[in-house]
């Protein structure tokens, strides 16, 4: 299992770094990938696009994919855009680890 954590603003300037970190994690062939946005203060459309691309890439590789997002800066945009309906969304890293290890 791999965990990729982001912090600060996740926008068009920082989304490529997240994309690279996720790609590096997926290259190690994990059974599951968790993207932890607990420390993200702003989630822009570029960040959400990276999450959807990563979700699709993980799915084609048979890797379970989950996102940790709690609070108005992260979970709200994911719910409003409908991404939360497609991606497993968890309130904490511990909850995500527990669900994916079950």
Write the layout of secondary structure elements.
Elements: E1 2-10, H1 15-26, E2 32-43, H2 45-61, E3 64-68, H3 75-80, H4 83-86, E4 88-90, H5 93-101
Parallel strand pairs: 1-2, 2-3, 3-4
Helix pairs in contact: 1-2
Give a quick account of the main beta sheet: strands, pairing sense, barrel closure: 4 strands, parallel
- Please state the second-level CATH architecture: 2-Layer Sandwich
Please state roughly what percent of the residues sit in beta strands, choosing from under 5%, 5-15%, 15-25%, 25-35%, 35-45% or over 45%.
25-35%
Identify the overall geometry.
globular
Distance between the termini: 13 Å
Helix content: 40-55%
CATH topology: Transcription Regulator spoIIAA
Q: In the CATH hierarchy, what is the superfamily?
A: STAS domain
Structural class: alpha/beta
Low-confidence regions = none
CATH class: Alpha Beta
Determine Rg (CA atoms, Å).
12 Å
pLDDT averaged residue by residue: 96
Tell me the number of structural domains: 1
Strand order of the largest sheet: 1-2-3-4
- H/E element string? EHEHEHHEH
Strand segment tally:
4
Count of alpha/pi helices: 5
Domain STAS: 1-100
Pfam families: STAS (PF01740)
GO molecular function: anti-sigma factor antagonist activity
Protein name: Anti-sigma factor antagonist
């Amino acid at each position: 299992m791999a965990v990729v954590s982001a912090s600060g603003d996740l926008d068009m300037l920082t989304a490529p770094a997240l994309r690279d970190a996720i790609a590096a994690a997926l290259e190690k062939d994990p059974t599951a990938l968790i993207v932890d946005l607990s420390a993200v203060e702003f989630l822009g459309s570029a960040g959400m696009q990276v999450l959807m691309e990563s979700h699709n890439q993980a799915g084609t590789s048979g890797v379970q994919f989950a996102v940790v997002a709690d609070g108005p800066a992260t979970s709200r945009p994911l719910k409003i855009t409908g991404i939360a309906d497609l991606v497993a969304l968890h309130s904490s890293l511990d909850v995500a680890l527990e669900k994916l290890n079950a």
